[in-house]
Amino acid sequence: MRDCYDTCSIISEFKDGQLTVKGNPEHPITAGFLCPKGALLPGWFHSRDRLEKPLIRTGERGSGQFREASWEEAIELVASRLRETIGEHGSESVLVYQYAGDRGVVNYAFPLRLFHYLNTAMLDYDICDRAGQEALKDVYGTAVGMDPEELRKQRLLVYWGINPFWTNLHGFMLAKRNNLEIWTVDVVRTETAKRSDRFFQIRPDTDVLFALGVAKVLIVENLYDRAFVRENVYGFEEFKNYVKTLSLDYVSRETGLGVEEIEEFARGYAEKRGVIHIGYGFQRSLAGGDAVRAIAVLPALVGHRFGFIYDMKTIDKSYAEGAFLRSGPVKRIPQVKLAEYIEKGEIRFLYVYNSNPLASLPNQNRLRRALKESDVFVVTHDIFLTDTALYSDVVLPANTFFERLDVADSYYHRYVALNEPVAGLCGKSNSEVTRLLAKALGIENPYLYESDEEVVRKILELNDLSWDELKEKGFVRVPEKPRKWETPSGKIELLSRRAVERGLSPFPEYRKFGGRYPLKLLTPTYRMTITSQYHNTYRVIDPNLYINPADAGERGIQEGDTVEVFNDYGSIKTVARLSDDVPKGAVLLYKAFWVSLLGWNANFLTTDETVDGYGRGSAYHSTWVEVRRA
Known about the structure:
Blueprint: E1 10-15, E2 18-23, H1 36-39, H2 41-45, E3 55-57, E4 66-68, H3 71-89, E5 94-98, H4 105-117, E6 122-124, H5 130-140, E7 156-160, H6 164-167, H7 169-177, E8 181-186, H8 191-194, E9 198-201, H9 207-220, H10 226-232, E10 233-234, H11 236-244, H12 248-255, H13 259-272, E11 275-278, H14 288-301, E12 308-309, H15 318-321, E13 332-334, H16 338-343, E14 349-353, H17 357-360, H18 364-373, E15 377-382, H19 387-390, E16 394-397, E17 406-408, E18 415-419, H20 430-440, H21 452-462, H22 467-473, E19 475-477, E20 492-493, H23 497-501, E21 519-522, H24 535-538, E22 545-547, H25 549-554, E23 562-566, E24 571-578, E25 586-588, H26 595-598, E26 610-611, E27 617-618, E28 623-629
Parallel strand pairs: 5-14, 6-13, 7-8, 7-11, 8-9, 10-20, 11-12, 14-15, 15-16, 21-25, 22-24
Antiparallel strand pairs: 1-2, 3-4, 3-16, 17-18, 18-19, 21-28, 22-25, 23-24, 23-28, 26-27
């Protein structure tokens, strides 16, 4: 139920005051095991750091100075400030900031009903997979690719810009169980790359060029599926002429791969009709949208209707959110631009749940400064005293998914799971707090008081799923309906009319990006965290800077030296680790550790630029830095 790609089916038991967990052996994806993060969940659940009582700030933001309060006092304070803010500044000055810290449908969406009813500002969810979504829609009309259970019929799986041995372990093991050949394309020699049959290490931002080079070989050597392309692909001849002008020697020089490697990739990929699992990380860059568009062409050329894996959307969850309660238009505020809107005075009341923006958002110095210098009233509902909670005026204790009823779908597979409570220690669910706030505001609308079970049953009914079957089995598979390409032409579009309508090139373009500083900063997720989750409970992190020995030598940096990493956004100090796994010209810091525990995180350095042509997606990985001995 955490914001995890696999959405495991967990069997939980609470006995003699102690929680135990194990993987559900009946689940086709979970397959009876949990990743290390999942296996350690009892420690997270029983953590002494869990919030038990509401807190009201008494000192400066970030100081950690609070006093305990009753639920009645805290809810009344939040309601009165909410009422006051709307009265003085209008409903659009209120922003509910939430994300997928929890995959539970009710826990994720139900509080939005209250804010829709109040006609407040809402988030534009641009922080995660947006650029890739837009790019895939340009080609296929959807970002939903192949059902991973179909991998049993395949021969080759290409992991492109994803490290599933850390972030999609069940998917990785599913591929192994099905005896697929595994290739990895990445900038960093990850744990997945080390366990792959082939590894193609490319330079940062050259994904688009590598994919176009592969496409050229497929076309020039007649390795593509002519019948499939003739019947199902739009703009092939134009695309063919486009890639014909591309020199493989140029692709080789830019990507760092040999011409022979590019040709071998194309030939092997065509022979085995490979499936490509596209990662989220590299598309969070200024080059990311074009890169995903270029990669998305390759499955079509070898005759796959939807031969990629990216997102999975199985059920309509909109009833839980209740946008039908809104009586006015929606003002959408981009997640990445939160600091900017606070600075402009457009946000006067901020309600945060299921998220920790003071760890996960880019350009943290700007965000923290904006919060300290403004009079925005901040409420955070969380399990722990996070970095965001430390900057809040009111902190409300949340419970965990072990303590409430819900259902959860997955980014990765087609199963919906029932989440049943096994214990109750402390805190209240997001839906409970929503009902309390609605009551304190004097709102009588019945949709704000529906029980969790009522909402769950309604969602299942709207999606033609059985409550009784879900109760009996714990999970159900959502059948896949007949699919078509929802593009303007009704075909897979190599020449994207949708992209052209947004003012983009009809074909993905390779562009070189750079900054004032010489080293590109990569900030992937760490194996024992989900963005900022679990840092405070598992206490297993890696705060080191990984740098190529050649770059280190040029700067007089040796293994174990304390170094300063800096740019115009900020500066941090950490320990250097020399590694050939990181290419020359790039450095790596794992992302979003708790500032209150570590003193900094990588987002003190990351850019808050967005990729406007691809849905204003985030561009974390278009950050450049310099490193020197401290």
